[in-house]
Amino acid sequence: xxxxxxxxxxxxxxxxxxxxxxxxxxxxxxxxxxxxxxxxxxxxxxxxxxxxxxxxxxxxxxxxxxxxxxxxxxxxxxxxxxxxxxxxxxxxxxxxxxxxxxxxxxxxxxxxxxxxxxxxxxx
Length: 123
Prior knowledge:
Elements: E1 2-6, H1 14-22, E2 29-34, E3 41-48, H2 52-62, E4 66-67, E5 70-71, E6 73-76, E7 106-112, E8 115-120
C-alpha cells in the first residue's frame, strides 16, 4: 500500500520516516519530495508497505501524531489492490493496427515506453 505522509518538518530524513513506519511492519520504499531546483524538502512524502494490514495500522496510529510540534497527516493513496486496466492499458492480445490517418477526430496521442496510443471520439 502506498501512503501519503504530510506536514512534517523540513529537516525530516528518509531514514527517520522509514523508522517511524517500520515499527508497524516492513517498509519497501520511502520517498521524501524535494523542490526540483533548490533541493529543499516540500514537507511531504510517500511510504510504501507491502502488507495492507500493517499499513492500515500505521495509518491509524500515526495520523495526527505530533512530530516536532507539528501534526502529521497520514493517508493511504491506494488500497494496494491490483488496479483495473483502462482503455490506454489495453492488453496487446489483438494488435492495434489503425494509424493516426484512419482516426477521424484524433484528440490525444500518448507514447509510453515505446508504445503509442491514440485516443479519438470513436473509442
